[in-house]
Amino acid sequence: MSLILVMGGTRSGKSAFAEKLVDKLADNVAYLATAQSLDQEMEERINLHRQRRPGNWTTYEEAFEIPTIINNIKNKHNVILLDCITMLVTNLLLKDLDFERVNNEILLEKEEFVLNEIKKIIDCVVEDEECTLVVVSSEVGLGLVPPDTISRAYRDINGKCNQLLAEKAEKVFVVWAGLPVQIK
Question: Residue 49 catalytic?
Fold first, then answer.
């Protein structure tokens, strides 16, 4: 299985590019969505993504158990589009997090947990030669330094996840203002 990473900032066009890329690769596409509809703004974003998807794609929505889903569906599809790692990191970091008791030790444990989940995703694709995994992720480290500990931990964890994925990816694209640039 080959791994392709598509990165960019918020509203850079990375998801739209990844969708076009995947559409060229195969007809039998699985779209694996990690976003959760927790408020109206997220529901609008999710609906925008749904409207762009071709009707012949199969959609799987899962916020946490991504390696399990990939292992369960990779033999049914030629291409899996995972959109996106950034939301997955958010979901995993905040799951069962006691905001009143957050400290560096807890955040380091969360970081280890999230990185292990990303490694499991990579392991799913390394073992299979029949399916391509295209992963979308945001670059969140180019802006201001976040003012609080949890947000800084999130930024750092997301950056480490992107590094792990880029290292193992066959191809890496960065999308700036809707323009994709292949960097690997």
Answer: yes
